[in-house]
Amino acid sequence: MSDIFNSSAPDSDASQAASQDNNAIAGSLPLSGLYENWFLDYASYVILERAVPTIEDGLKPVQRRLLHSMFDMHDGRYHKVANVIGQTMQYHPHGDASIGEALVNMGQKDLLIDTQGNWGDVRTGDSAAAARYIEARLSKFALDILFNPQTTKWQLSYDGRKREPTTLPVKFPLVLAQGVEGIAVGLATKILPHNFNELIEACIATLRGKKFELFPDFPTGGLCDVKDYEGGKRGGRVRVRAKIEQLDKQTLVIKEIPFGTTTGSLIDSIIKANTSGKIKIKQVIDNTAAEVEVLVKLAAGVSPDVTISALYAFTDCEVSISPNACVIVADKPHFLRVEEILKYNADYTQELLRQELEIRKQELLEKIFFSSLERLFIEEGIYKRIEDCQTWEAVIATIHAGLAPFAKDFYRAITDEDVLKLTEIKIKRISKFDKEKADDLRLKMETELQEVEHHLANLTDYAVAYFKELKRKYGAGRERKTQLTSFDTIEASVVAANNAKLYINRAEGFIGFGLKKDEFVCDCSDIDDVIVFREDGIMKVVKIAEKLFVGKGVIHIDIFRKGDDRKVYNMAYLDGKTGRVMVKRFQVLGVTRDREYQLATEHKLSKVHYFSANPNGEAEIVNVLLSNACKAKVKTFDFNFAELEIKGRTAVGNILTKYPIRRIKLLKEGESTLGALTIYYDPATGTLNKDAMGKKLGEFENQDAIIAFYKDGSYEITNYELTNRYEIDKLVAIEKFNPDLVISAVYLEGISKNVYIKRFKIETTTQGKPFQFISVHKDSAILGLTTEAAEKVELYFTKDRKKQKIAYPLHTLEEVKGWRALGRKLEEPNIYEAKFILPQKEAETAQNGLTFEAE
């Protein structure tokens, strides 16, 4: 071996050949390629035997060995987890820690393991009690779908003393129901859990050749955006959010958390965001017990809607999960879509059912066969003929001869083994043989055989019926926990709390939040971008910092909002090349940070005479005063920026004057030239947007507002800021506020239990404050509401245990009164719903925000 490491050894073919021969004789191997082979062997072992599940049963080896051990131990009673671990160590060579961890993980998924004791909590991150304290047994569901020794393929355990299954005959897409995560060598797998009932419906659909879609469902609930899921394959992702509600003006409550987080980690992320100044809160209280409840107390003056968005932007209230569906197929890892995995599992289940039917068919044929032999053996008196036989061979021959006339009636030939079984029948059984009872038993077996053959001929229908039975037996209580929705895009810089102040030193050309002795500009956050305009016509966007040089001659500085298509800049500048004064209107939608952009012509004499930044596209009127020395007859005139089109920032602009200017000053504030802003309400997220998602609320000018009506009989007027958020479950209707609007409502008065109808106009204008237009009581509720000019109202009620309906012209029931009025009491008993009928069309539902009907 020393020659291998000797760099001075002769480099001849003969020497190498001699060295190889000597090594071979000595039993040693060259190091060349040895590490490569070892690494490949190790990588294959980790992939196949530890980290990645097999597609047939969806289990890793440790999980499969655990379940096999528990099946061996199963007697209907609970077993100490420590005993289960010890039993599994007969099959699993990697120690008790990995076994215990795998068992707790499966137990927390509440599918295969029936648990007893403290098994921890995936929501809080609490760990399970010690193995000697907790107990487990197989669930009824596991016993139904996991085990069948007749269809199981076996192999020897690691020490050769026992046999274990290579895969369990699982008749269900288990890997998609439980989910799995594992890290191997060179690859990883992450399959997200899916809903039990939806998996069954998908199996039925694929067996019938229909299309289906599968999306994750997490045990922690929450909200999930799956538009980029891509079937769970590499490159896809899902966004998961906590369910946050507003308890009151100063309190938010988190009721469900994102998958992969715990209440502890979530609270830590909130505290960290508060410490860094991204959000402003006073306190976080964890009241989690049977249900998740984390209270977030807000600081005074902080908007709950903006804070909810900030929690999603800066904390673990929103997480992104990247699935990576990798499974072992034919001893090799494959990256598949969840639809492909489910189709494989559905077909595999059908194949297992076919094998079970074939086995049962064979068992029935054998039972019927031997039952027929037994009957002939007794009824034909064949057992009497063997009394005179002197040898065993003669006995066998005599029975064969007695059965020979009937051989054509059997499905297979009669063997000596069959005859031997006949000789083992006891005399007592022969003497008590009941022909009618034997015929009934055979008829039952033949009937069952016909059923089995029918199922084999209609295997797909049989498999579908099997899945339907699984859903009937085990589907209750396994409804979807995670709500599928689409998420609004949250711009972090918009919702970040102002945790800094922006200052500027104009003389030296520095800006930053550290220049506290200089001129204050505005409040900001430490993640904002700042836009700067200079009098030489240069514009640049920079990241806010403690102190940063941006150049002298700053004429405007502000926080930059990327993509703000309402912000318009008006500018008049001297073109140094021609001496003309140009005017232009432009927007800045997107730029490269720290790059200088030339807004005026590039010349040393070019400079800005006038500049304004307008948040809603306003166009003002300015007064232009020319130089006294110029030749112009009229040396002062007015100019309206509304005459200009809004163009790109690189546009040269229009000529204002060819004469030198002494001064340009603002004469009159302008109005927006962009027109009204179209606002939409997205019922999936409870937010406003400009992107045509959801219901169109209308065109909004500066003074316009939104009105929202809630199920508890309150309304609230709000502005139309896109950061507003409305509680979807409590909302009845939402639309553009119109003070002339007439609202018609039928409601249950909680104190008297009477039902009233009222019609009223909104008389308040205060924004951000809820007003109760029915009595405040826990049982008070809206039964129907519309904001349109309804013609009739239909009342649904029960009388003499029968459901009835009656319709009234709306104007005959109640006049339009004040919003505090009680309304008119309705005489019909037990009214449970009201529908408002619009002229020429049915009343719409609350889904579009115009009319609400109680469920």
| Number of H/I helices | 19
Task: Provide mean pLDDT, rounded.
Answer: 88
Distance linking N and C termini: 85 Å
**Secondary structure: helix percent:** 25-40%
Instruction: Please state the CA-atom Rg, rounded to the nearest Å.
Output: 40 Å
Polypeptide structure, described:
Among the domains are: about 1-30; about 45-205, Topoisomerase II, domain 5, CATH 3.90.199.10; about 240-320, Gyrase A, domain 2; about 560-670, no CATH class; about 675-855, DNA gyrase/topoisomerase IV, subunit A, C-terminal (Neuraminidase, 6 Propeller), CATH 2.120.10.90. The protein is built from 19 helices and 49 strands. Helix 8 (about 195-205) crosses helix 11. The radius of gyration is 40 Å and the shape is elongated. The relative contact order is 0.06. Mean pLDDT is about 90; it is low at about 1-25 and about 840-855.
